[in-house]
Amino acid sequence: MSAAAQIALQNAINGLLIGGTYATVAVGFSLVWGILNVINIAHGALVMLGAYVTYWLFTLYHIDPLLSLPLTGALLFALGYPLQRIVINQVVRASFFITFLLTFGLELLITNLALAAWTADIRSVTTSYSGWSVALGPIALPVVRVVSLLIALLTAAALQLVMTRTRLGGAIRATASDQEAARLMGIPIAHVYALTFGIAAATAGIAGSLISLSFPIFPSMGAGYTLVAFVTCVLGGLGSVPGALLGGLLLGLLQTYAASWLGPNFDNIIAFSVLILVLLVRPAGLLGRAQRFRG
Amino acid sequence: MTARGLGGPAGAILAAAALAAALVLPSVAGTYYIRVVTGIFMFGMLASGWNIVGGYTGYPDFGAAAFIGIGAYTTGILMLRVHLPFAAALPAGGILSIAAAVAMGSVLLRLRGHYFAVATLGFMIVLQQLASNLDVTGGGSGMNLPPVRSFTTFYYWMLAGLIVAVAVGFVLPRSRVGYAIAAIRENQDAAQVLGVAPLPFKIFAYAASAFFFGIGGGIYAYWFTFIDPPTVFNIDFTIQAVVMTIFGGPGTALGPLAGAVILKSLDVVLTNISIFLHNVFFGALVCLLVIFAPRGLAEIFQARGGLIEAIRTELRENRI
After folding, report:
1. Residue of B nearest to A83 (CA)
2. The complex's ipTM?
């Protein structure tokens, strides 16, 4: 294999590996945007909380991050459900400005409480297997990131199953397509909204856990991941699990190739230029609204 | 709080008194208060500027800080590398902001709602990263402008910018352009059917709004003497302008200024109480405002049945 081909292949692998995490970050954001019509600026802050939960469980109680994943998800669900039910549901029918501002306020609140509680110090989770890497011919596969991608795929698959195969998924989809009709059919809208937000928070927490394995943790880390979620959703299409997956992998590939060809400081220029192009050519995203929650 | 509420001779006297007080303040107040009030003027100008596109036109521009950056860097580069005086560099920043808004607006303003918001945000982030990669901007290590001894300079520049921004808020709704913009906000498709081509008017509003952000950024750069990409291409400027506009009353001439005065003063008080927790308080405040007064001060003051009834109505209408 020539050196150029080897670099291109390694970039593809790296892009897909990081893209899986992006998809996990974005899938909940996409759900909340597509179904509740709320752009959740605080999504990245929930990712940050997930990372800290993982960090503290690992540091204080020596629980392996991969084992604490379900616990992180459950804790974030327990935070997300009342957040929607008690706070965001109050204004969920108001204009988009209002919910945008509310979640911005929540982001400010959560991030700065975290800053007060845990200081701005940069922390990291270093497990015994953090540095492991498997050589596959000329290609290096970092174990942690491969595992992260697998968990990302599993999370997306599980969520897609919930959305398409369960009563809850049916209720969520019914609410998304016609809120009034769903209410008349006896679906408790406020509860369904809160469940949807809780699920989104749980996936954000899981994404935070995965991120803590490979990247630094600090209170203001969330903002960057909210932007990642934005781009991923717009690329893939709103409210669609496969869309978030496709968007995440595409964004990972785009950023990795841009960084490799133009320099590490060009990843966002490329990502957002592509975002604006996609918006103009195909505003509903690559997988569009028409196909939401179908395979 | 609206233009109508403050019209007539009483309003004119009040405005003249406020202006006189603002002009005299630097000669009686200490440096700290001059700085605080300069900050209030700046955000009053930004909120009034954002109101043109967000309030009057209904386009949620969440990348307005892009023009803070353009204004700050244009002013900085012209002063530092071309050795122009500030008074010449600042208008250049405003004009370049208008040019950038016309160029980007003709593309982005075809999008609506959420998508416009996301695209403008993306535009700002692209510029931020561009500024950290170019040589002329000093890259990631930023840029130091020549320092100035007197803070009153910036005070008067900001005051002048603020007066123009508020004046635009008064004049615009009474002009032909203002009627077209209002028609587009209420129903763009209907406006188009009636022969109003939306895009030029939207570009006009976007460019006017960008101008005030560009000027604000230019003065800010000279005022703080140091700029780097994350401090000027900072979404915080946008969000604060949006919060102040919505709190004060979007689409009114004095609402954004009222929002800036009240919220910025509150923020200063909170910072004095705890520099550590003031953002926590501010976040909580934003949440409470949004839930209990989503349409801002203006609507609540005009509501029949008083404040409590207005809040109750808001809660009933928006919750599920």
Report:
1. B287
2. 0.82
